[in-house]
Design goal:
The complex is a heterodimer of chains A (256) and B (313).
Chain A lengths: L1 H16 L2 H21 L6 H28 L1 H5 L2 H6 L5 H33 L7 H24 L4 H16 L1 H10 L3 H13 L10 H5 L5 H27 L5
Chain B lengths: L7 E11 L6 E12 L4 E5 L6 H8 L7 E6 L2 E2 L3 H4 L2 E4 L11 H12 L4 H14 L15 H13 L5 E5 L7 H16 L3 E6 L2 H7 L2 E6 L2 E7 H7 L1 E9 L8 E5 L2 H13 L3 E9 L2 H10 L4 E3 L7 E3 L1
The chains are: A mainly alpha (256), B alpha/beta (313).
């Protein structure tokens, strides 16, 4: 079971690593993180915080773009190029295939995010930033969110074309971060229809703000270990549900 | 698996596709029945759109049939254990372009779960040499020509020493040398006890290679049986060469339709004092038979399990 998932994950990792698109996105991420340094100079008093704040946001955005853009073609490319035929003719189940693809992409995202985190750490070290364990906690949140976004994108990818997969995933990403605001508007709304639709959307989309600890290293806030643990289970549960649904839809699909 | 159990048995396979938007039902396979025995090379013939690739996809659960029973190695359905014993080359050889030839073979070997480590590397190198790609083993597949992709595709189908190989149009895109090589590989593999099932448009290749044939037309099976049984069944008659006593330097020849006429002609030549030089059975080529099956509904050929094929009029 795990051997096949590992072999597919390794191949997916190799496939993405050798793809030029990754380098385009990675360069974009690096530039965005470097831009944090320039942006920090705009502030007279709080340039360290501004640099750190924008740096973490840059990593977060880069990670989300990577998850959604590469995730959207991860399975569709296999189908379009018909490489899936020889793959599924081997002794692997479709669930193992989906898991392997997700794990392979997560491996790439982990490497890119760690690389960007290293660049940010070097920048922050140069401007006397006070490092704490919160730096790691913030990055951990970014990675759990990436796992959830990869799962979400794979799920949409089973029934939508890559372009629509990107649209659905990006919409879910935005909605997932605005769930608290949506909750506020749903509560205040006079319209019964908006309350029903808003309520449904809040339940259909994961709350991505649950993994947002990016302010903690910037403002030296305390993050309770329990909060991280709950968020971890929340993220894993959503990913498990989404990957299971993907696998169920994918299980009976004809490749013609 | 008992030694007598067929490698593959297909009964009553049916598949209908539903078109998007208009939801029209398009029957792709109406009723397909056949079996493949160990160590045999079986050709799978049919015109474009006859249902060959759909059948193969149903066999490998890449498409799911609406009805029918598929038995591998004496056990119903396609289990992961059965899959581990099967090798497959799809119709269009699109593979992972980012992998080198060697990495590609090792990837499929690892997925099979039957071979790993040093053994796998050695087997991959051996196959690269067998398909004459040892010079390209470290090059990414994106730089391979169509013929090279076809050959590396055959190697991936054989990497784990399967008991049964399904090849969808293995000769397509190959030059005459390449086709000869592939024919030799198929023969070698079958000699080692592996059953080979391959679809092809290239009838001379099927005629040379296959002991058995399965022919489909518009989603229906029209023939299953021995290649020679089919060729014998649709024979054109006998060709007699003889010399007459009046002009012994001239070799005369005549074709007769059947055995009765053959005897009459031989008797007539001998009665006149002539000398019979040669009597040859004239058989139609597989190509001619195939054209007949493909285009003449009145001459459907059918064969029942274990019986000789016969022309159904």
């Amino acid at each position: 079971m795990f051997q096949s998932v590992y072999v597919i994950a390794r191949n997916t990792f190799r496939e993405v690593i050798r793809d030029r698109i990754l380098y385009g996105l990675a360069v974009f991420g690096v530039m965005l993180v470097m831009f944090a340094l320039a942006l920090g100079q705009l502030s007279f008093s709080d340039h360290v915080r501004l640099t750190a704040n924008f740096g973490f946001t840059a990593i977060h955005i880069s990670s989300a773009i990577l998850s959604i853009f590469i995730g959207s073609t991860l399975v569709s490319r296999e189908i379009e190029k018909q490489t899936i035929l020889t793959l599924l003719a081997r002794p692997i189940s479709r669930t193992q295939f989906i898991l392997g693809k997700a794990m392979g992409l997560m491996g790439v995202i982990l490497c890119v995010d760690l690389g960007l985190a290293l660049i940010l750490a070097l920048i922050l070290a140069g401007i006397d930033f006070e490092f704490s364990v919160n730096f790691g906690v913030a990055m951990f949140g970014v990675l759990i969110e990436a796992l959830l976004l990869v799962s979400l994108t794979l799920f949409y990818g089973t029934f939508a074309k890559p372009f629509m997969t990107v649209v659905f995933s990006a919409a879910s990403f935005l909605l997932g971060h605005w769930i608290s605001s949506l909750d506020f508007f749903v509560e205040k709304s006079q319209s019964e229809g908006f309350r029903i639709v808003g309520g449904l959307l809040m339940r259909a989309v994961p709350n991505l703000e649950a993994f947002n600890w990016r302010s903690a290293p910037v403002y030296n806030l305390q993050v309770a270990p329990g909060e991280v643990l709950v968020a971890l289970f929340y993220g894993l549960a959503w990913s498990l549900i989404l990957l299971s649904a993907t696998s169920i839809i994918f299980r009976r699909r004809d490749f013609v | 698996m008992s030694s007598s159990a067929p490698v593959l048995q297909v009964r009553g396979l049916k598949k209908t596709f539903i078109t998007p938007f208009r939801r029209l039902r398009v029957p792709a396979l109406k009723k397909i029945d056949f079996q493949i025995n160990a160590g045999e090379i079986t050709g799978f013939l049919g015109a474009n759109g006859a249902g060959k690739t759909t059948t193969i996809k149903c066999l490998l659960e890449l498409a799911f049939p609406d009805e029918g029973e598929i038995t591998y190695f004496g056990q119903k359905g396609l289990s992961l254990e059965a899959k581990a014993r099967i090798g497959f080359l799809p119709e269009r050889p699109y593979f992972y372009e980012h992998l080198t030839g060697l990495e590609f073979l090792q990837f499929y070997g690892q997925l099979s779960g039957r071979i790993r480590g040093v053994d796998l590397r050695r087997r991959a190198e051996e196959l690269l040499e067998r398909v004459k790609l040892q010079h390209a083993g470290t090059r990414p597949l994106r730089g391979y020509s169509k013929g090279m992709l076809q050959r590396i595709g055959i190697a991936q189908a054989l990497i784990h020493r399967p008991d049964f190989v399904i090849l969808d149009e293995p000769m397509t895109g190959l030059d005459p040398d390449g086709r000869f090589e592939v024919r030799e590989i198929i023969r070698e593999v079958a000699k080692q006890g592996t059953a080979v099932f391959f679809s092809s448009h290239l009838l001379p290749d099927a005629e040379q290679l296959c002991r058995r044939l399965v022919i489909v037309k518009k989603g229906e099976m029209v023939f299953e049986g021995g290649t020679h049984e089919l060729l014998d069944q649709v024979q054109r008659g006998w060709l007699i060469h003889w010399r007459s006593p009046e002009n012994p330097n001239e070799l005369k020849s005549e074709t007769v339709a059947d055995l009765v006429n053959l005897q009459v002609q031989i008797d007539a030549v001998r009665k006149r004092g002539g000398q019979i030089e040669d009597v040859t059975r004239v058989r139609a080529s597989l190509e001619e038979i195939f054209m007949k099956i493909g285009f003449e509904d009145s001459a459907l050929l059918k064969s029942q399990q274990g019986r000789s094929p016969e022309v159904v009029r």
